[in-house]
Amino acid sequence: MLQQVTEEEIIQEIAGGGEYEREPVPAGRWKGWGSFLGMYAGEHAAGTEFVIGPLFLTAGVSAFDLIIGLLLGNFLAVLSWRFLTAEIAVKYRLTLYYQLEKICGRKLVRYYNVANGILFCFLAGAMITVSATAVGIPLNMEMPQLTDTLPTSGTYIVVVILIGAVISLVAARGYDTVARAANFMSPVIVLAFLACGVVALRQLGVGSLGEFWAIWGEGSEPFPGQIKYTFWHVVIWSWFANAAMHIGMSDLSVFRFARRATAGWTTAAGMYVGHYMAWIAAALLYAVYLRTPEAQAFLTEGLAPTVAPGPLAFNAIGVFGIIAVVLAGWTTANPTIYRAGLAFQAVLPRFSTFWVTILAGTVATVAGLFPAFAMKLLDFVALYGFILAPVGAVIVFQHFFARRTGVVEDYAERRGLGFNPAVFWAWAISFGLFYFISWQFDVFLSFVTLPAWLLCGVLFLLLSRKWQQTAGSLNTPG
């Protein structure tokens, strides 16, 4: 789902050591599409996939909604990467953070980093929970349920703390350790998803396309505490599962190394290996579990059966399943904590990378103690994209419309501003308005992500034009 490879890792692998944090990537470092294909294929088959697939079933999706909805939603995500992110990346060849700094000002970018870092910690905490469900199997640990918010047992607390401590220490050792771990484990995880899907099909007695389609049929009522997902829920949610990366422009930092914008098509490898094959394979695991006496007992009592990834994978492929879930959660949480540490360092520059990463790991471990972050991952991912994606609209609208509307590009840099109010109020108004609509009228949050993104871009242009005209000449001190 969300990227499990840090910006620094990608840059080091693609650029061969040159980071170019505050300058355009030179032509000698540009890379062809092949440099991006394997990266995207591996990084989107991660610990999150073990949770997301089953959660679709708890929302009562039908076969058509799941299979065709994911097909379309992931394609829309690929189009966003290709025609927005990659297009702008090869035009300017700057990192997200430097490009935002030129538009927003350094102070405002720091607030963005804090928000990014906190959200990264929550995601990492969910992945620590994922790994804990596998480690806890031989310990006979009580698994968290869909409705659980607090720790389920003392064993669960100990397991989460130990996993969090190990992950934090490895992440704090720096980029090289994180990169080696992710590169080594990614192929194993992809193979595990494929194996789980094949075994689950056999356990379900599927011998034809019709029997495969019948697994979900016309769908069902959502489990207790879940909302009903229709075709459009699946399409829109899967489109914006990585909203922060494509329409939110985070992957500018990746595609600035691409020789041409057509490299954006390589994201299809991630969407259809991870966000299609892996999600469906994980959903098949849950379909097998739902036929067990244990799951039926939950349903009989009006309770939602657990979606704990560890037991699901163990029931399908045994010890290899436990290993795969541990690795999947670990390879997502590890670089995510590292990336959160880097974000925190922007506001804590006196602290070393080691200690800010330890701080991020501590926050993530505390979050992992609360299984709600993992059990409500669909909701969290929707919120994550909703918060961060509108910031990307500022970059997109400046690129396509600034000159047409008379808006000065990179205004903060030209005026020496640390805080561009046009950017802040564009984001705050769009976020506040559409979050209120979602909350007040019970609208699925992913449904308002695109309207919020569009409004933020339009407001940025209008407010920028107004304030720039008021400020007058660019030579006036900011």
From TrEMBL:
One of its GO terms (molecular function) is cytosine transmembrane transporter activity. Keywords: Membrane, Transmembrane, Transmembrane helix. The keyword Membrane applies. PANTHER family: CYTOSINE PERMEASE (PTHR30569:SF0), CYTOSINE TRANSPORTER CODB (PTHR30569). The chain crosses the membrane at residues 66-90, 111-134, 154-172, 184-204, 229-248, 269-292, 312-333, 354-374, 380-397, 417-437, 443-463. This is Purine-cytosine permease. InterPro entries: CodB (IPR030191). One of its GO terms (cellular component) is plasma membrane. It comes from the Bacteria. It comes from Neolewinella marina. The keyword Cell inner membrane does not apply.
